[in-house]
Amino acid sequence: MLLASLNPASDDIADAVRIDGTVLSRSDLVGAATAAAERVAGAGRVAVLATPSAATVLAVAGCLIAGVPFVPVPADVGATERRHIVGDSGAQAWLGEVPEEAEGLPHIPVRLHARSWHRYAEPPSEATALIMYTSGTTGAPKGVVMSRAAIAADIDALAEAWQWTPSDTLVHGLPLYHVHGLVLGLLGSLRIGNRFVHTGRPKPELYAQAGGSLYFGVPTVWSRIAGDGDAARALASARLLVSGSAPLPVPVFDRLAELTGHAPVERYGSTETLITISTLADGERRPGWVGLPLRGIETRLVDEQGGLVPHDAESIGALQVRGPTMFDGYLNRPDATADALDSDGWYRTGDVAVIDADGMHRIVGRESVDLIKSGGYRIGAGEIETALLGHPGVVEAAVVGLPDDDLGQRIVAFVVGDAEPQALTDYVAQQLSVHKRPREVRLVESLPRNAMGKVLKKELMQWH
Length: 464
Ligand code: MLC
Ligand code: AMP
Fold this sequence. Notes:
Belongs to the ATP-dependent AMP-binding enzyme family. This is Acyl-CoA synthetase. It contains 13 helices and 24 strands. The protein has helices at 26-40, 54-66, 79-89, 148-162, 179-192, 204-209, 219-226, 229-234, 250-260, 334-340, 381-389, 421-431, 457-460, and strands at residues 17-19, 22-24, 46-50, 70-74, 94-95, 107-108, 128-134, 142-147, 169-172, 195-198, 214-217, 240-243, 265-270, 274-278, 292-293, 298-302, 317-322, 347-355, 361-366, 371-374, 377-380, 394-404, 408-417, 440-443. Strand 20 and strand 21 (377-380) form a beta hairpin. The mean pLDDT is 97. Malonyl-coenzyme A binds next to helix 5, helix 7, strand 13, strand 21 and helix 12.
């Protein structure tokens, strides 16, 4: 069973999930999620506006119980992106919360106090669990089709690596529409059967108050905690602090270790592959390195001619991964799927890495400057440029990620035109999503281009 702890044979616990001021016991969860399942059973696909709320928890669990694939929609989604996700995914209804503009879909609310004890047969493990939208370097976000089997394999491998058990209390305040917060944090907890606490936002003081044993955060969150001595010291009683979704800077690793007494565990993955590499609860946690392949995962480094690169801790190659946690392709995009996955099942991560003789991995960077990681969110430069060009005051636009102490990279838009910078930031927030807004808009006379007319992004990144 994918959500193994929602098995009627499991012991009840009074506080299986805490979120947004609501506490759900395990029997509340089973009863209310099964009631949600009854409302969607038989549907082809539904959208879930993934706000950090009990409604989202019940909607997600209900879909997985009924075997209905769901599409998590970012809670801060804007108009263009919402239209794209709803249209491309073919979702037939909103389950749980509904955005102000429902894109013509009916709304199926979930009721916190409804109960059903119907027993659904477990769907086949190869069935689709969910479709997560994620950015590429160009174009609109693509739907990543993820099976139940891949999710189960990933959570089980992580449980082994992190000695994650039902006696843990897992705490995070990350969004419930990406791998980190949703698949690992929420589905992981519902599979393992540990207590799950969602703090609403990932703020240091909320992490400090939560009394967890296992904490998840993106590097921006850990950097903010490392900058707040009281909050960091309060995490000394935890068992494991886990960082992922972007590189954890070595000074943040060191400061956290000093203040909390815990060297953080770092792990690496992506929407398409789930988590594939991690340091271990009982193994070496080397600052700047993301660890060893999880059980069942193979990795390799490839050079530009397709040759294998040695694992000598120095030679850099394009990182490829394969194993039981891989996605089943991009929805409606066989072209993009074929570019990403080769016929032997190797996924081209787009990251460049080194591997040492013991199999320890270090992520060196990304192959493309057009895929930006800001606050742990993956954001395509191309989709922001396209959005900006839709504004009447913009003639040309080029977007880059510049180094940022807090966010890792911050989105900076260089624009030729006569729009107000703040108006452009707001425009992107309203069209795409709030977290994709440029943090800085610079109006310039012209963009540097090569003889073919292509914008020279590396040169742009040197402009100050
Ligand atoms: C600001 N705001 C605006 C605005 N400007 N709203 C509308 N229009 C504008 N122009 C408001 C926002 O609504 C928000 O309000 C507030 O400003 C702050 O915005 P923010 O961008 O959310 O805050 P920030 O502090 O910068 O966020 C940092 C962060 C966030 C770390 C909390 O980046 C985050 O949650 N990151 C996690 C990403 C993640 O989970 N990635 C995993 C991907 S999976 P309010 O009221 O809401 O505060 C993956 C695989 C793997 O990568 O390996 O895990
Ligand atoms: P996403 O699709 O949002 O899941 O983003 C996946 C990308 O995040 C990867 O391809 C990496 O570039 C990056 N990433 C995830 N975890 C790490 C990590 N621990 N260190 C460096 N980069 C990471």
